[in-house]
Amino acid sequence: MNNAQYVKAAMATMSDKWYGDRVALVFLVEALRGASAQAAKLDSVKKALFYGRDFEAFEKTAKHAVVDSVMPRVAAYDVTDDMERARRILHGIIGIITEAGELSDALLTAIESGTPLDLVNIIEEVGDTQWYVAAIADALDVPIDAFHTINIAKLKERYGLAFSEIDANVRSLNEERSVLNVLVGSI
Questions:
Q1: Burial 18-30 (b: 16+ CB within 10 A, else e)
Q2: Would you say the C-alpha torsion 177, 136, 133, 2 has a positive or negative sign?
Q3: How far apart are CA 156 and CA 10, in angstroms?
Q4: How many angstroms separate the Cα of 8 from the Cα of each of 3, 115, 141, 153, 180?
Q5: Cα(171)–Cα(167) distance, rounded to whole angstroms?
Q6: How many helices (H) and strands (E) does the chain have?
Q7: What is the pLDDT of residues 19-62, one digit of tens each?
Q8: How much is the pTM?
């Protein structure tokens, strides 16, 4: 599936509805602030783990387990238990979360300032998320377009050919997982 086909298939499963009257603005702003704050904390962790920056909140004492203890758990999902691969997967996952926080910041800035969304920043941040997706794809030795194919198969299982509110709210996660298991097993 090429990029244009993926975008077309993905957009068929996007809601065309807007229920802006169901959420008070204060709750959206509060949620965005929380997401941004947590992503900023995780970004500091990422920079310490992968870029060697100091992490001020860390005290090296015996009472703290260090993140190295996480690596075997990440690697356990990999047949080879390769720690380098686990490191790259962890980096990719944390990176996507932190970039989502930066997207949250951009949205929050536009809402609070009353200015238009900074589209250059949005494109840059989405590009950063794609870099982390590429890192995960490389670590898993999965072609990046396989993510697209698998995602669309899941969405087709959920919605058929087009989005519906009923299908969005009443889902069969077991059926979706069955489709995913078959496709991931075929990679």
A1: eeeeeeeeeeeee
A2: negative
A3: 9
A4: 9, 30, 26, 13, 20
A5: 6
A6: 8, 0
A7: 989 999 999 999 999 999 999 989 988 988 888 888 766 555 44
A8: 0.83
Q: Which residues contact 105 (CB under 8 A, 6 or more apart)?
A: 36
Total count of residues recorded for the chain: 187
Domain locations along the chain: 3-185
Q: Measure the CA–CA gap between 74 and 94, rounded to whole angstroms.
A: 12
pLDDT at site 187: 83
17 has a pLDDT exceeding 90: no
Report the distance separating Cα 173 and Cα 167, nearest Å: 11
Amino acid at 165: E
Q: For residue range 51-110, what is the model confidence (pLDDT) as tens digits?
A: 888 876 655 544 556 666 666 666 655 555 577 888 888 899 999 999 999 999 999 999
First to last CA, the chain: 14
